[in-house]
Amino acid sequence: MTHPTGLYNRKKSLPVGEENKNHVLRLLADLLERASLSTNNAKNIGFIIPSKRNEPEKFVAVCEMERVLDDKDLLHELAMNYKFHDRSTAPDSFITQFNKLAKDAYWNRMQDELSLKPPSYNMVIQLIRDIKQSFKSLLRGKNDRALYTVTLLLDEKQLMRDSAQVRNATVLNEFRLIITNLMGMVCCPARDEEIMKLKKETEPIAQLRGIMEVLEKMKYEMANYLLASTRPTIMHYSINYEREKFSEMRATFGRKKFPNTMAWLKRTLSSINRTHSGVVVGDASCSKNFQTIKLIDIHMPEYFVEPYQELIQIEKRYPLPELLEIDAGRLVRLKEQMFRLCACAASMQITFKSVPSMVTHPRRQHLAAQLTIASTNFPVKYNQSEMLKNICSCVLASITEHSQESNGPLITENKKISLHAQIVSINCRTSAYSSVRVQLMAYLKNLLLIANRQHVSFPVEFQDYREQTIELARQFIILVTFNFSVYGSFYLKAVNEG
Q: pLDDT tens-digit profile of 363-418?
């Protein structure tokens, strides 16, 4: 079983070479086939490669994966990303607008067919065939009995036989009911609300269109589920590929010093030597004093967690280590994400201390969501000070409404002024922020140290932001695991040599 971060147990590395590359390509091809994604869909499903240096953001479709496996930067992004992106759903894109027009035309044509006297069911019958195929892909290898039921119930021949009869409209309604009931059985909980809305829809075309849209979402979810099962293989291939490239680069350019990398290691590891007198970080005796973390095929001493944690602290503005430049954009996003998360968690803790009744009040969940929205656009649209003012406005509005409820607490103006002063002054040095960040850092470290991540206690300070915290942890752990797996041997040797 995996931890909620979506990370898999550590495994042995795979050999590098053309055979392994072909193995990865076969996995991706099988993934698309099992997810029942058409050739046209495959052109719009892939990965977003973030902008880097002077290069703009780019989209790489799954059908271009063979090229990706020979491009270090693209392969790295494939290994670090964990979800497919559907380019056809990007807002305001030409593809999105074109697809919308095409779909509108399709459903309008079906409406015209059903409006004929007598109605034509040709398009509906083909649609049922498509729906049946979608169910087959979603149920394949999972539930043979359900798959048999789908084949039996969604019999387009029955509709074709009955379409010439008076009760054809009733038959169509029965098919729609069967389909929505089947979707309710096989969909994930996240789709329950959409399925309920579909069942309540009475207009045939609107319901059929809604059914197809939800089935498409379910197929993408299936593709991402299957991608997760392929991820260890892709990551191993990418790690070994980058190791080879690093070895080739060092062989070509000699013993390059990487000054920023060395400064990063010495700066962050110097505290270890000061704390444990007589221990030289990097030497053989060090393993007796520190726990090691088993990654894919290398052991990382626990004290290496601190250098990586420095990289995601927003106030740290040291030059980026050369061997992490490929993840520069990712690290910037992690810094911003962590600051937003800690600022929101700290604001909640300050609020609870000032207004204890908020801890168990239903309004708490709404306030947490409001703080997330208030901090979302930092630093794109507003700076740290503006973000904190937005957060403070949400807090003051929430506690004011709380105080106006029957049996609500008395909240004086002085208390509001105090809350305002504490929240707008949140920064990396204030006790509230430092306290929650210490808990978050401990959580991240324990996720790496403890083999069974299910046993790692989740920090209570972040219980209002569980999903965001787990997502940050997932990204951080993948980055640490990948980078140390590629360069760990170099780091250890470099530190030992001083």
A: 999 999 999 999 999 999 989 999 999 999 999 999 999 999 988 999 999 999 99
Burial tier of 47 (Cβ tally within 10 Å: 0-12, 13-18, 19+): buried
Q: Cβ–Cβ contacts within 10 Å for residue 284, how many?
A: 8
Q: What value does the CA radius of gyration of the chain take, rounded to a whole number of Å? A: 27
Report the run of H or E that residue 423 belongs to, with start and end: helix 413-424
The whole-chain average pLDDT of the chain stands at: 82
**Start-to-end C-alpha separation, the chain:** 41
Which tokens go with 2?
Answer: 């995996």
Residue 404 or 29, more confident: 404
Most confidently modeled of 91-100, 101-110, 135-144, 347-356?
347-356
User: Are 84 and 46 spatial neighbours (Cβ–Cβ below 8 Å)?
Assistant: yes
Single out the residue of 17, 77, 33 nearest to residue 52, CA to CA: 77
Yes or no: say if 181 and 158 are a contact pair by the CB < 8 Å rule. no
- Measured in degrees and rounded to the nearest 5, phi and psi for residue 299 equal -100, 130
What is residue 86's three-state secondary structure?
Answer: strand
Question: Could you give the angle at the alpha carbon of 247 between the alpha carbons of 244 and 249, nearest 5°?
Answer: 110
Q: Which of 74-78, 242-246, 338-342, 409-413 has the lowest mean pLDDT?
A: 74-78
Q: Are strands 292-294 and 45-49 parallel, antiparallel or unpaired?
A: unpaired
Tokens in use for 207?
A: 């319901």
Q: Are the C-beta atoms of 293 and 446 separated by less than 8 Å? A: no
182, 199 Cβ separation under 8 angstroms = no
Inter-axis angle of helices 431-449 and 466-497, to 10 degrees?
70
Rounded to an integer, what distance in angstroms lies between the CA atom of residue 126 and that of residue 146?
21
Residue 57 DSSP label: P
Give me 28's structure tokens: 């991706």
Indicate the DSSP class of residue 454.
G
pTM given for the model: 0.78
Q: Residue 166: its pLDDT value, please?
A: 44
What are the distances in angstroms from CA 147 to CA 180, 218, 318? 15, 16, 57
Could you give the CA distance from residue 316 to residue 298 in angstroms, rounded to a whole number?
Answer: 28
Query: Do 78 and 58 touch, CB atoms closer than 8 A?
Result: no
* DSSP bridge pairs for 47: 60
